[in-house]
Amino acid sequence: MVGRRVLIVTYGCTVLTPERPPVVSHEHERLGLFSMGAVPGLTMPDGYKRAVAAWYGRGIRLV
User: In terms of domain of life, where is this protein from (predicted)?
Assistant: First the structure.
């Protein structure tokens, strides 16, 4: 957005129970799980892609 500042908050998660499918809450219509390599090909603004890349690059491994 030209002339506007936008704050993008990225929430990421690590699937700990791959044998159980994720559940979509009533607040959302659908869910997508994407590998880091798939993100550049997704249809979304570059700012969102940079936010996702930053999440992947944070260097933290929970499992």
Answer: Bacteria
What are 18-52's pLDDT values in tens digits? 899 888 899 988 888 888 888 889 998 888 888 88
Whole-number Å distance between alpha carbons of 47 and 63: 28
Q: How far apart are CA 63 and CA 61, in angstroms?
A: 6
Q: State how far the Cα of 39 lies from the Cα of 15, in Å rounded to an integer.
A: 17
Question: CA-CA distance, 10 to 45, in Å (whole number)?
Answer: 13
Phi/psi at 39 (5° precision): -60, -45
Note the pTM of the prediction, 2 decimals.
Answer: 0.59
The CA distance from 19 to 40, in Å, is 27
